[in-house]
Design a protein that fits this description.
By secondary structure, the chain is of the alpha+beta class. Helices cover 23% and strands 50% of the residues. Strand 5 and strand 6 form a beta hairpin. The protein is globular, with a radius of gyration of 19 Å. It starts with a helix and ends in a 7-residue tail after the last strand.
Length: 193
Amino acid sequence: MAVVGAGGWLGFSFYAKHRVTAEVETAFEQIRKQGGKASYGKIAFDLPTRTLTIEDIAVTPGKAPQAQIRIAAIKGTGVRQIDETRISADAVDITGLEVTLDQIGAAKLKVAYKIPHLVMRDYAGPVQAGQVPADSSLVDMYRYVLGQYASVAASSLTAPTLTISFDSRAAGSGEVTYSELAIQNLSTARSTG
């Protein structure tokens, strides 16, 4: 009986990991269908702790070829699916986040955001990111990012540092570093009508 129980547990664990991998692949395939590039490395799912880890993420949206997103690893602990479109996690740990916007607008502005470590507690958000804007204007890209930010909720979001580097032929270049960033009670506005 113990052997059957162990076999059932291993079978269910394998099924859960397969389903999680399929969900991740579906999300990345949406980016590819829009003409973008999206890749990831190792995916691990630990069933008892419901811990999902995805390594070596690289995304270049198709509609905005100047944008590049790289993430060394995302680790969600206590991951649950709320419904068909939303998930939640007790904690989401993101390491090595880099977003680069290259040669945007008439000024050919290059901007890079680097966050070595970001932690979100009591996270809830969409399973998939929204559609990337049709053009690559700086305003539309910022609107898209703010829309993604507005679609999540978390009791806290913390990052030891955020570095923003910029380079423009017209305005020069520079770098700004913010330390000990923290946002409390980040929540999604919901309509009641």
